[in-house]
Design a protein that fits this description.
With 311 residues, the protein is an alpha+beta fold. It folds into 2 domains: 138 residues, 60s Ribosomal Protein L30, Chain: A; 147 residues, PurM-like C-terminal domain (Phosphoribosyl-aminoimidazole Synthetase, Chain A, domain 2, Alpha-Beta Complex). The protein is built from 11 helices and 13 strands. A 7-stranded mixed beta sheet has the order 8-10-7-11-9-12-13. A 6-stranded mixed beta sheet has the order 1-2-3-6-4-5.
Length: 311
């Protein structure tokens, strides 16, 4: 059963007429524009809301601003690109004052400076509601073409950067490093067939690749890398379930040919780990191969945006 957020996205996509200047539109981590035959431009945008994406009982204003940019940089990384400029629009709570507003922008600007991204414009408003931040980031692919979700092929190996699960428990969702450098290294080393960043959960996001590529996948339970938080949180859910469904990991999930996978395993020299976690199959479903060899269907479990409540 399709989740409400993606049902709405599919409906919007059906109402939009394609034009030649948009080479990749709605439905991926970023759009790709083609302003002229020799250049492609990546555009990513996300809106973050207090009470949904962060709470000030656990987050600082700087962390809220940082995360608003970081999720967009992660989307640019997922397209195999580099970020160049950001545009920031904020709805500031009118009762929190100028220092609060400066702190939000300080977190954002510091991360922008870390990645050589220019804050090039935006809009500022205030209201009697919670903090809302919308960031749009421009970038460009490192290779002649960006890496989309469509392109995974049967036999491809599935990889993930870093480790998964427990991000909300550990607070990593506020301070995660966008994998821009890792994405650059990947596309310079091998041809990446399909890629995205894990924001809604490994199982949920893998299904996006499978749907776009019209393939299936098998995940290897023993090989899924789990964070220490996923292993130790005591909430009645298994560490594996946290790794499959927690979301807010912002690691890169991608598919490459087996030869390219072997090359990555032999030549990867970055601090961020790289783990083979499965393979692409011809069956149009997603399955989990347990440690004992038993296979079971893996639905797209993960974070769900409750549109009925939001609207």
């Amino acid at each position: 059963m399709q989740r409400p957020e993606f049902e709405l996205i599919d409906w919007i996509r059906g109402q939009v007429r394609d034009r030649g200047t948009v080479s990749l539109g709605i439905g991926d981590d970023a759009a790709c524009l083609k302003p002229n035959p020799d250049r492609e431009l990546l555009v990513a945008t996300d809106m973050l809301m207090e009470g949904v994406h962060f709470e000030f009982s656990s987050a600082t204003p700087q962390q809220a601003g940082r995360k608003a940019l970081a999720v967009n940089l992660s989307d640019i990384a997922a397209m195999g690109g580099r970020a160049t400029a950001a545009f920031v629009s904020v709805a500031l709570p009118s009762d929190r004052g100028m220092q609060f507003a400066r702190d939000v922008h300080t977190g954002l600007i510091e991360l922008a400076n870390d990645h050589d991204v220019i804050l090039a414009g935006g809009d500022t408003n205030s209201w009697n509601g919670p903090l809302v931040i919308n960031v749009a980031v421009l970038g460009e692919p490192w290779m002649p073409r960006p890496v989309s979700r469509k392109g995974a092929q049967p036999g491809d190996w599935l990889f993930v950067t870093g480790a998964l699960g427990g991000s909300l428990v550990s607070g990593r969702h506020l301070n995660f490093p966008p994998r821009l450098a890792e994405a650059q290294r990947l596309v310079n080393l091998v041809e990446v067939h399909a890629m995205l960043d894990v924001s809604d959960g490994l199982a949920a996001d893998l299904h996006h690749i499978l749907k776009a590529s019209r393939v299936g996948a098998i995940l290897f339970e023993p090989d899924i890398p789990l964070t220490q938080s996923a292993k130790t949180v005591n909430d009645g859910r298994s560490p594996l379930m946290h790794g499959l469904s927690d979301g807010e990991d912002f690691e890169l999930l991608f598919a490459v040919a087996p030869e390219a996978g072997r090359q990555l395993l032999s030549s990867w020299n970055m601090v961020t780990s790289l783990t083979r976690i499965g393979e692409i199959s011809t069956e149009l479903d997603c399955r989990l191969r347990r440690a004992d060899g038993k296979m079971e269907l893996l639905p797209p479990i993960g974070w769900t945006h409750r549109l009925g409540e939001a609207l």
